[in-house]
Request: fold
Amino acid sequence: MIRHPFLPCFQAVLPKPSLFLRLFLTFYLMTISKTAFAEELLQVSAAIHISSTVSDGKHSIAEIVRIARENKMRVVVITDRDFMRWEYGLWPLRGVIKKAVTSNSVGEYGVRRYLKDIEKAQKDNPDMLIIAAVESAPFYYWQGSPLKKNLKLKNWHKHMLVVGLENELDYQNLPTVSNLRKSSWPARYDQYHGDQADRPYQNLIDYVNSRGGLIFWAHPEAENVGTRGAIGIETKPYPDALLKTYGYTGFSVFYEGYTTIGSPGGIWDTTLKEYCQGKRKQPVWAIGGLCFDQVGELTEIMKDLRVIVLISDWSKKAVLKALKEGRDYVVLGKGGLRLESFEVTDSLKQNKPAMMGEEIALSANPRIKIKGYCLEEADVKIKIKLIRGGEIIKVFEAASPFEIEYQDEAVIAANKTYYRLEITSPGGMLVTNPIFLINEKVIQ
Reply:
């Protein structure tokens, strides 16, 4: 009897499943995706960056999962706000004469309670993967004075997504200005000494990495300017933060991360070239963040944006590993663009193809294979931009479904470079993570 490779994962969460249930789950998993990049990988749709009523969201965790299921999402990453608290104290008695403003957050709700709620959602939905995360504002600072009536709260909306921490204490000890809990991790910054550039954010990155988590820049091109009573609130776009920080997992290309960062030749390509040049220890990967709290309808946003994650088995660990290693692509719009294959091989050697997030050593010209289709749009023109080292080297025009093989005959001078794709249809866009190639001809 042939057993589906993912069935044991469900046996771990379901007590003594019946034969009928086993058959149902086997059939269900086989229908999650009709295509896979490799025989051992399965494509699943993920919804990332959603707040619940635990913090500043519209829907409960259970409602978010239900809406995700209705929109054919199989992975949900809940990102409630970690600590929603800002405080101003009058000098020289800042600790005595002070005013604090707090809002709903994981810190207020209780980390243990939050994690248990997500654990319950997982138990109630064994055919989905529900992952705990938080949206963090590591730092803010004050500018001006209440006495002069020009007090401003700066960088309160400069956010990062912390994903995959499992230890309760790891969340409780997050090194942010809003977190009043004392921990062993150095608390180096306060809100009264002006802009500290990107140091507080690097501090959080280092902390999350030390705990085995993932960390992404959220909505880095977004601007948030307003007022709350007599206080001004101002966060300017922060795309340069991606150049000034190191070791983070990636960024949200959508929403609010494409124009300056994710477009060909933008900041993302600069970071990828820095990795190829040895200036960064790891690549920067792209994800999509729904950035959903109260505004709009979650159903419509889920129809508009999803991350397709390539997983090796049905587990949270597999999803986190895929995100950490760049095995995902981002789909924007309702056209339903999908990618069946994006791989690079040596045109002469019969070596194993490299896929997104991988590296391949080449002694001859690279051969690129691209295959995909549109779920919703028929008879439409699709443009496929092949990007090498930040430059568009070829634009293919095709109909759905499409299958392209292309041999790059250019003389590549760099020791190491990469390919990535940007695919557009009238109704949407698809952005892949890169495939890196090591140029053995140059190294020799």
User: Anything to note?
Assistant: Confidence is low (pLDDT under 50) at residues 1-31.
